[in-house]
Amino acid sequence: MTDQPNVTTSCDTLPSGTLAVEQAQARVLDSIQALRDTETLPLMQAAGRILAEPARAQMQVPPHTNSAMDGYALRHADSGASLHVIGTAFAGHPFTGTVQAGECVRIMTGAVLPAGADSVVMQENVQRDGDTIRLSGTLKRGENVRYAGEDSQPGDILLEAGRKLNAADLGMLASQGISTVTVWRRVRVAFCSTGDELTPLGMPLQPGQIYDSNRYTLHAMLQTLDVDMIDMGIIRDTPQAVEQAFQQATLTADVLITSGGVSVGEADYVSDTLQRLGQVNFWKIAFKPGKPLAFGTLGDCLFFGLPGNPVSVMVTFLLFVRPAILTLRGESVPLVPEYPAICDTPLKKAPGRKDYQRGIAERDSTGQWHVRTTGNQGSHVLRSMSQANCFIVLPLEWGNVAAGTSVTIIPFEGLM
Ligand SMILES: Nc1nc2c(c(=O)[nH]1)N[C@H]1C(S)=C(S)[C@@H](COP(=O)(O)OP(=O)(O)OC[C@H]3O[C@@H](n4cnc5c(N)ncnc54)[C@H](O)[C@@H]3O)O[C@H]1N2
Ligand code: MOO
After folding, report:
1. In whole angstroms, what is the distance from residue 27 CA to residue 336 CA?
2. What is the CATH number that goes with domain 15-37+186-328?
3. What is the pTM of this model?
4. Is 268 near ligand 1, meaning CB less than 6 Å away?
């Protein structure tokens, strides 16, 4: 197996004026404080939301000792004898008497265990003759009994603050009679495409025009993050239009994402406008695709000017915007996880930029990941991104990669 030298990225090896991916990610995360506005929601609107305060048990669950089986409730001491059936207990309709020596109560799953009884025998394990039963096997004391409070006791911390609420959490809160939760409010994200060449879907293409695809990928990736979205549409390539869009977004959004117009061309107004209206934190990163990525602030609004190339939009979103939004949401592990893999195909790469190439990864029978390229790695080739299920991450110092080299991958699962 061929391994590339594992050189640590140092600032000296970076092209001037650019940051390493890790430095840029650190700058983004260091500049963000989690949002601290809360809202109270009914449980049915709270799936996926982040709990702002711990949830405590208000009562014991189960609220009453009850049967785990359809059968007969009895005193364990009597389990060897013939027992007289004195009544029936249904879930929701308790038996109100007391089981005395030599007696039992017909009982259904979930019904309150009658006073006097301490065990339940499954109906499959008894012989019934009229109003009399006899157990056909042995029974342990307390068998098939679910005790009051064995799930939770009043005051127990059921969920810590910061928990992303899932289906089990919401069911558990409902079992406590809790009907609302206090969660952090959603992050508000405005997004737009910039470019005079862009045509909205549903309109015929004029000469030199292309369809706007970036808003669709951005919308879909934002959807996985459960944010409030403000779709600002297509912004034309004039300083006035870009400025107006920025001002409008900052009125309501916590984050503004643009795509296109961030490079050095004569119709690239995004970075200039950010400089004029807000503050630029960084603008160039030594990686591919996505070298020009403008990050800064417009007042209290975080700003990400993503490059226009469609694959670059997706890479920069996943590496920079997604962790930023997760941090704003109060989540503590925002960076995407990476895994070791063996690259089964040779890859072309020039040293000087870290590469995020598109790959197809599979595990072999030993659990080892293997990855192969999707082919054309142009940052305009969305089809290559669509065929991929991971990024192949190639360090800045590396050149071409031989088949059999150990690499690192970022699987897309859960990311988009
Ligand atoms: N002289 C230089 N030129 C370029 C450089 C450079 O360093 N020096 N960097 C290149 C790289 S790398 C990238 S990435 C792009 C980024 O440029 P912009 O952010 O200014 O993006 P645009 O020029 O507006 O668009 C690039 C490309 O993407 C297409 N595009 C834009 N928006 C959309 C959209 N919403 N849907 C689909 N496709 C879109 C656009 O038509 C262009 O083909 O700059 C390089 N140039
Ligand atoms: O960095 Mo650009 O995003 O390669 O295409």
Report:
1. 16
2. 3.40.980.10
3. 0.83
4. yes
Q: How confident is the model at residue 9 (pLDDT cuts 50, 70, 90)?
A: very low
122-130 mean pLDDT: 97
Q: Which atom of ligand 2 is nearest to the CA of 312?
A: 3
Domain boundaries, the chain: 15-37+186-328, 38-60+150-184, 66-146, 339-411
284 lines ligand 2 (CB under 6 A): no
Closest protein CA for atom 17 of ligand 1: 263
- Computed over every residue of the chain, the mean pLDDT equals 94
The DSSP line for 297-314 is EETTEEEEEE-SSHHHHH
Pair 258, 191: CB distance under 8 Å: yes
- Rounded distance, CA 206 to CA 235, Å? 17
Nearest CA to 79 out of 151, 1, 144, 170 is that of 144
276, amino acid identity: R
- Report CA(26)–ligand 1 centroid distance (Å): 25
Task: Report residue 158 as tokens.
Answer: 């059921």
In the prediction, which pLDDT does 13 show? 62
Helix (H) or strand (E) holding 250, with range, is: helix 239-252
- Residue 33: its H or E element: none
Domain 66-146 has CATH 2.30.42.10: no
* Residue indicated by tokens 């307390």: 142
**Alpha helices for 268-400 (secondary structure H):** 270-277, 310-316, 322-328, 382-387
Q: Which pLDDT belongs to residue 266?
A: 78
Complex ipTM above 0.90? yes
- Does the domain formed by 339-411 have CATH 2.40.340.10? yes
Contact indicator for 401, 395 with CB cutoff of 8 Å = no
What is the assigned CATH class of domain 38-60+150-184? alpha beta
